[in-house]
Amino acid sequence: MNLYHLILLLLKHSLLFLITFKPLLATDREVIEEYIQAIQKLGIDIVSKMFGDYSSQVCVTHFRMNKYNITQDSLSSDGIAFHTDASLITILQDDDHLGGLEVVNPSGKLVPVDRLPGSLFVILGDIALLRSNGRFRNVQHKVECKDVGVRLSIATFITPSINEDIEVHPKFIDVDHPPKYVPFKYEELRRLRASNQFHCGEVIELLRCKN
């Protein structure tokens, strides 16, 4: 049993089982621990390829499981509204059976993401844009309720530590490309997003250098 099928079973009964781990068999717990370790390693590998050896810096991993009970009445509504993630990257294991994930492509058009059972999607967040001096794009995305049923997904957020000093990575700076964004702490970014109710990357402009 892989983690995805294990979580399908647990979520259909109670999230309390997953939170406490008490009712889980040792083998089930091992599956979850192995998945967490594998996803963390994958996340660090991806970030290191984007920014060089990032593994020497602290990366924090957050997991979130989403469950949507989609009924006839909720069809065409948003399960999760438009947003960007505050993370470096988000690794998403989406539902194998019910679609609904939509992203804004580089031309600004909203496009549905085809289901690819057993695949992982990597979504770049606000920190990826800021660290890359705007080279990478933070991806606006949402989930629309398109089919009746129970829709499940697992999101893994790779983020800096809360007090880490964040600035444009040197590999993205040269004579023709000076830093576009001021140094800041991850905690500050989260505070600005929350206090201004920014959801779709608007916080980026508050961190832009005033030349």
From TrEMBL:
Keywords, ordered alphabetically: Iron, Metal-binding, Oxidoreductase, Signal
Pfam families registered for this protein in UniProt: 2OG-FeII_Oxy
Entry annotated with the keyword Oxidoreductase: yes
Keyword match Iron: yes
GO molecular function, one term: oxidoreductase activity
Gene3D superfamilies linked to this entry: B-lactam Antibiotic, Isopenicillin N Synthase, Chain
Domain Fe2OG dioxygenase positions: 59-160
InterPro entries from the UniProt entry: IPNS-like_FE2OG_OXY, IPNS-like_sf, Iron_ascorbate_oxido_reductase, Oxoglu/Fe-dep_dioxygenase_dom
PROSITE patterns: FE2OG_OXY
Annotated signal sequence range: 1-26
Similarity section: Belongs to the iron/ascorbate-dependent oxidoreductase family.
Protein's name in the database: Fe2OG dioxygenase domain-containing protein
Natural source organism: Saponaria officinalis
Lineage, broadest ranks: Eukaryota, Viridiplantae, Streptophyta, Embryophyta, Tracheophyta
